[in-house]
Amino acid sequence: MSSVFGKQLKVSTFGESHGPALGVLVDGLPAGLLIDQKRIQREMDRRRPGGSAMVSARKEADQVEILSGVSQGKSLGSPIALLVRNKNARSKDYRDLAEVFRPGHADFTYFQKYGIPPQPGGGRASGRETAARVAAGALARALLEPMGIAFFSCTVAVGGIKARKIDYEFSHTDPLHAADPDLARAMGEKVLAAREKGDSVGGVVQVEVRGAPAGWGDPVFDKLDAALAGAWFSIGGVKGVEIGSGFEAAARLGSENNDQMDENGFLSNHAGGILGGISSGQSLLARLAVKPTPSISRPQSTRDLSGRQREIEIKGRHDPCLCPRVGPVAEAMAALVLADACLCQRALQGESR
Ligand SMILES: Cc1cc2nc3c(=O)[nH]c(=O)nc-3n(C[C@H](O)[C@H](O)[C@H](O)COP(=O)(O)O)c2cc1C
Fold first, then answer.
1. Does domain 4-352 have CATH number 3.60.150.10?
2. What is the largest CA-CA distance in the chain?
3. 353 marked among binding-site residues
4. What angle do CA 4, 39, 14 make, to 5 degrees?
5. 121 is known to lie in a ligand binding site
6. Using CB atoms within 10 A as the burial measure, which of 14, 112, 197, 247 is most buried?
7. Which of 13, 16, 318, 322 to mutate to test the pocket of ligand 1 (most atoms within 8 A of CB)?
C-alpha cells in the first residue's frame, strides 16, 4: 500500500484515522528555506474538524511537531518529518461497524484487496490522512510563496446551488467556505437540512493558483494537468476534476475557446493556465466535484464479512458536506505538485544549460 508521491520532492504519508498519530516525511526540499511553524499550523487549522455545524465534531488540535530537517527555522536540505498526534479518536463509535461494509466507503474494496476488515474511521482511507498532506503542502508553500505563488480555494456549489460570484476573502469567513456572499446562507441551510434528516450533501470546490511561471510540467505522460488531476483525485470523495473551461469547452467553438494573445499576453484563460501539459504563466484554475459524505445516519442496506445482508445506520461524527474540508487539502496537493514541477525544472536546467 504505497503512500509515496512526487519525483524530486518525495512525500510519504503514514498513519490511520484511529491510530496514535499520523505524519509525513518530505525529502528533497532545498536547504535554507524559511520554515515557519506558525505558517504550517495556519494551514492545519484551515483543514481541521470541529468549530461549526458544517463539519465533523471530532475535536483535533492537529498540532504539528517537526521531528527533523529543520534548524533555527530553516530547512537543512535533509528529510523533514512532521508528526500529528490523534487526540480525539473514538473507536467505540465504530464497534458496531467492525463487520459490515459501509456504503460509499473503501471498506469493501480494502477487504477484497488486502483481506483487512473495516477499520475504525476507515483507517488509512480516512479523510484524517489528509492532515499529513496539508502539513507537507505547507512545506511546499515555503518553496513557492517567496516566488510570488499564491493558492486559493472556495466552495462554488453545494447540493446544486451554484455560486454566481467568487469572493475568496468572504469564503475565509464562511463555515462552508462558500464563494458567493449572496448564496452562502442558502448553501448552509441546504447542508443543515440534509444533516437534520441524517443525510449529506455534495458540492464543487474551486482551486486557483496565481503566480506560477510559464514552463513548468512535463509535455508527455506527466503533463502538469495530469499530475494535478491525479493529485486531486487522490483526495477521498473527489469524483471529478475540470481544468479551465473543463466540460464546458466541449460545447464551444474553437473560436470561442482559444485563448488569443497580443503583445501583452493572453486575452482570456479558458485553458486554466496549462497548454500541452506545461504551465502558461496564467492562473491555474480548476474545479473539483466532491461527492456527498458517505457516512449518513439513515438506514442503508449492506453486506457483512460473511456475505449476509444487513441494515445499518452510521452514528459518530461526520462532515455533512466535505467541501470546506477538501479545499485546503486540494491547495496542499496543488502546492506539492507545483513544488515538484519547480524542482524538476531546476534539475532540467542544471542538466542542459
Ligand atoms: C478532509 C476529508 C474529510 C472527510 N470526512 C469524512 C467524514 O467525516 N465522513 C465520511 O464518511 N467521509 C469523509 N471523507 C470522505 C471519505 O474519506 C471517502 O469518501 C472514502 O474514503 C471513500 O473514498 P472515495 O470517496 O474517494 O471513493 C472525508 C474526506 C476528506 C478528504
1. yes
2. 68
3. no
4. 25
5. no
6. 14
7. 322
pLDDT tens-digit profile of 54-109?
777 767 788 999 999 999 999 999 999 999 999 876 666 667 788 999 999 999 99
Instruction: Show me where the domains of the chain are located.
Output: 4-352
The SS3 call for residue 328 is: helix
Q: Which three cell numbers stand for residue 79?
A: 528529510
CA–centroid distance, 60 to ligand 1, in Å, is 16
> Hey, which of 44, 52, 88, 126 would you mutate to test ligand 1's pocket, going by the most ligand atoms within 8 Å of its Cβ?
126
Neighbour-count burial of 168, counting CB atoms closer than 10 A to its CB (0-12 exposed, 13-18 middle, 19+ buried): middle
Sign of CA dihedral 123, 126, 132, 136: positive
Q: Give the helix/strand (H/E) hosting 75.
A: strand 74-75
Name beta bridge partners: 278. Answer: 275
DSSP codes of every residue in 241-283: EEETTGGGGGGS-HHHHS--EETTEES--TTTTEETTEE-SSP
CA dihedral 264→267→273→279, nearest 10 degrees, is -30
Q: CA 19, CA 88: separation in Å to the nearest integer?
A: 10
**Residues of the chain under the 50 pLDDT cut:** 352-353
